[in-house]
Structures are given as C-alpha cells and as structure tokens.
Amino acid sequence: MKYLSLLLGWLIFLIVGCGPKEEKAQRTLNGAGATFPYPLYASWASEYYKNTKIKVNYQSIGSGGGIRQIIERTVDFGATDMPLKPEEVEKNNLIQFPAVIGGVVLVVNLPEVPPNSLVLDGNTVCKIFLGEIKSWDSPEIKALNPGVNLPSKPLTPIYRSDGSGTTAIFTHYLTQVCPKWAKEVGFGTSVNWKAGLGAKGNEGVANYVQRTPYTIGYVEYAYALQNKLSWTKMKNAVGNIVVPEESSFKEAASFAKLEPEKHFYTWITNVSEKNAWPIVGATYILLAKEKTEVNKEVVKFFDWAFKNGDSMAKNLHYVPLPEEVKEKIRNLWKSHNLY
Asked: What is the value of pTM for the model shown?
C-alpha cells in the first residue's frame, strides 16, 4: 500500500504538475494579413513571448490575404488595414476591432532634391498615379516647389501588386481629393492601376523605390524610416503643408469615430484639421466568432499589448489607440465572453 500510494502521488504530479506547463509553453497563435502594422506586431510578439512563453506567429501577406484566411478559418486571427463594413463582418461571422493607428506616406528617390523636402498635394498625387504627370519637372510639381531644381526625368509610380490595406487607405484618400480617381478607379485593397509598376508588400515598394532613381511610391511611415527613404510633405485638407510625424497622425486620429455598434468601421483620411496628416488609417484584427477558446488567447495578447505596448508603438511611429477606445474594445470582448 505504501508503494502504491507513492506511485499514485507520482502520477498525479506528472499529470497536474507537468502537463499544463508543457502545453502552455508549446502554444502558438497564428495570424496573417496587413504589412502596415508588421513592424509593431513583431515587436509586441517578441516581448509577449519573453513574458509568457506564448509565440505569436504573424505573417505579413497583405490585408487581402488576411481577410481571406480568417474567412477560410486557416489562421487564429486575420489583420487588415481596410476595415470590413458591418454587413461583411456579420455575414462572415467575425469579430472586428482596431489595434493601432498609423500614417501612409509618399516616398521618392530624387537624387537632385534634398531629402524630405518635396511638397505634393492630393490632386498632384492623383495625376501621378493616373499617369497624367509623366515628368518630375511638370508644371504641377513645380508650382508646389518654387525654387527647387526638379530634374527633367521620367516619373515612375510604384504601387502594391498584392491585396493591400495600405492601398485601401491610399486610394480612399485619392477618391476624396480627386473626382476623376473616384469615377475611374475607386478604392479597395486592389484597384485597376492606370500607370506605374507593382511591388509586393510595404517592403517591396520600399525596396523598389530605394534602389530605383526617379520613382515614387506609398508606404506605411515605419517602412520609410527603416529604409531611410525620402518622404514628401503634403498639403492637407485645409491647405496647410504638413510633415508626417506622430503629432500630425495623432491630430487626424483624434477625429476617428471608432464605435463598436458599427464594428469600429471608419476612415481617417483627409481630415479637415490644421495640422492633420491627410493619409491616416487604423489597422484591424479579425476573429472567427465561433472559436471562443482560441479567441481568448488572441485577446490576451492584444490586451497585453494595449497595456504594455504603447511605448513600442510610439517608438515605431504608430499612434496608440486612445484609452476610451481600448475600453470599448474590452467591452466588445466581454460581450463575446472573451475577456
């Protein structure tokens, strides 16, 4: 009996003491989608692993891929910079919430022009990507940059070839400032581009512009900084020339109407405020509503990020969500028994 008791005690130790710890240590959350927030999600995942030993494996395949994979239920969470409309969220039995806010910037490779000095406006950018402005010394660009020695060189726009939320934010802005763009092209993760060359991901556009003189592309701001690309200033909705930085992104973001009743669906482009950067967007997380247990683990990660990750977001030049929006998201999680 003595040996039997010892044996039973040892088995209980193995089952209770070792089992759950091993299972927790081996847990991996798999997400995929937007390249826009990838630098931040990678940083959050690294710190989260140090604290919990839970891995978050995030593949930056573009918003279109993230939407497709969560609808097909092949990942634990999807990510997109193009928010799904409320009816799309409900049709696909999803939960949608924002994670962070960031800015999209125009980047150029102009060896003759000082870095970060070129000024553009929405109408000029529209004409560039419609293929109507073909040279860097065009009258439209000259008018915005008096005294600048603009080269008489062909201009090549670079756009995203994959399904992209960054494209959705950029083209949504163009529909607001350019009636011809709204009529002939529209907005979305993929559009029928009129001019230029395609590259995959924010990384692909950044790399293409970096190595090819006289190109112009659009990327999330962190990619411009990481690749030491020259960004442009922009004339905003009220006619002021603004630079891409946390304060101009934050001013635009402060007018975002992020409401759970609409599954947080909103756009933050072309905001009519003095110092607002004109091309700003929120990036979103999508969960399969029926996967309650997995969703609880995903929610733990993003809740940890909301509590501990704001400094990392700021260091990478994103704008953390306001605390009142975070509380709205937590209430949404509670309504689905995830928090």
From this structure: 0.86
